[in-house]
Design brief:
By secondary structure, the protein is α+β, with helices and mostly antiparallel strands. The chain has a domain at about 35-100 and about 130-245: Aminopeptidase. The protein has helices spanning about 45, 50-65, 80-90, 115-130, 165-180, 200-210, 220-225; strands spanning about 25-30, 35-40, 90-95, 135-145, 150-155, 185-195, 215-220, 235-245, 270. A 9-stranded mixed β-sheet has the order 7-8-6-5-4-3-2-1-9, sandwiched between helices.
C-alpha cells in the first residue's frame, strides 16, 4: 500500500505563462467506481464556491504532515487565491468520491407510498445524497514549462483514502492529459533537506523512481524560489525529476528528441461536459 504517494513538492511561480486551459476530461477508478478523476472547471468557482476551500484544505492538510520539520508552523502549502488561479487556467485536477449507494434514486413519481420499505430506503438515499454531496479526496496541479515540457505539483490524497490507488490514478491522469496536450516530458520538484533525510521525501523519491521518473538536476531553493527561503526552518534543495512520455506510435521502441524511452504512459480519457 502506498502510504505517502499522495504528495509531492513543485512550488510554481504563478506568473509563468501557461498553455491554454485543458479540455475537460474525466476518468473513473476501475476498482472504486465511486471515485472519479476530473479537471475542475472555472465555472465551478461560481456554481460550487466551496470547491476553493475543499481543494485548499485537502492540499494543506496533506502537506502539513508530509513536510513536517521543513516549514515554519504557520506556513501553508497553498492559498485560496492560488487555487483559484489554477482553476481559472484549467490546471487543477481533483479526485472526487461520489455517493456510492446502490440502486436508482431518480424520483420517477412511482411508489410514493411512505409505508413501502423500498420507497423509504430510496427516499433515505436521496436525503443522504443531498446532505453529503460528492467530496474531494485528492488533488494535483498540472501546468506547462514550455510547449513540450509539462510539470506538476501539489499531488495530495487525504489520509483516510490512501491505499485505494488514488495517487496512482491522479498521476496517470495528468500524464495522459499532458501527452494529449503535446508534452514530450513531464517534471516535478521534490523539496529535500540538505543535511538529513526526511522519511516522507525519501519515500517519494523511491515511489516516483518506480513510476519512471529519473533525476534531472538539483538546485538551491534560494536561487530557484527566493521568496520561500524565509518560510523554511531547514536548509533545503529542490531536486527535479523528469519522465519521458510515449504515445501509441512510440510504444514499439521509438524515441523522443533522440532520447531513449524510459516509460510508456497511457490512460484512456473520456471527454466530459462536467461544469
Amino acid at each position: 500500500m502506498d502510504r505517502n504517494n499522495g504528495q509531492n513538492d513543485c512550488w510554481q511561480d504563478t506568473t509563468t505563462p501557461t498553455v491554454p486551459a485543458f479540455a475537460s476530461y474525466t476518468s473513473t477508478l476501475v476498482a472504486h467506481p465511486s471515485i472519479s478523476i476530473r479537471v475542475v472547471q472555472p465555472s465551478e468557482i461560481v456554481t460550487r464556491p466551496r470547491v476553493l476551500d475543499e481543494i485548499t484544505d485537502v492540499i494543506n492538510a496533506v502537506y502539513l504532515h508530509a513536510s513536517d520539520g521543513l516549514w515554519a508552523t504557520n506556513s501553508a502549502r497553498t492559498s485560496l487565491e492560488e487555487v483559484k488561479s489554477f482553476i481559472e487556467t484549467g490546471e487543477m485536477i481533483v479526485a472526487v468520491k461520489s455517493d456510492d449507494s446502490e440502486g436508482n434514486d431518480e424520483d420517477d413519481g412511482e411508489d410514493d407510498d411512505p409505508t413501502n420499505v423500498e420507497e423509504r430506503r430510496r427516499r433515505q438515499r436521496q436525503k443522504t445524497k443531498r446532505e453529503n454531496p460528492a467530496v474531494i479526496v485528492g488533488a494535483v496541479r498540472l501546468g506547462f514549462r514550455s510547449a513540450h515540457v509539462a510539470d506538476f505539483g501539489m499531488l495530495a490524497v487525504l489520509d483516510e483514502y490512501k491505499g485505494l490507488g488514488i495517487g496512482n490514478a491522479l498521476l496517470s491522469f495528468i500524464e495522459a492529459v499532458a501527452l494529449e496536450k503535446g508534452a514530450r516530458r513531464i517534471q516535478l520538484e521534490i523539496l529535500v533537506p540538505q543535511k538529513w533525510k526526511h522519511p516522507s521525501k525519501e519515500f517519494l523519491k523511491g515511489w516516483y523512481a518506480r513510476k519512471g521518473y529519473a533525476f534531472l538536476e538539483k538546485d538551491d531553493i534560494g536561487r530557484r524560489h527566493p521568496k520561500l527561503v524565509d518560510q523554511l526552518v531547514a536548509e533545503c534543495d529542490f531536486v527535479v525529476y523528469e519522465k519521458t512520455l510515449l504515445g501509441r506510435e512510440e510504444e514499439a521502441g521509438g524515441n523522443i528528441d533522440g532520447a531513449p524511452p524510459r516509460c510508456i504512459s497511457e490512460l484512456k480519457l473520456v471527454s466530459s461536459t462536467t461544469s
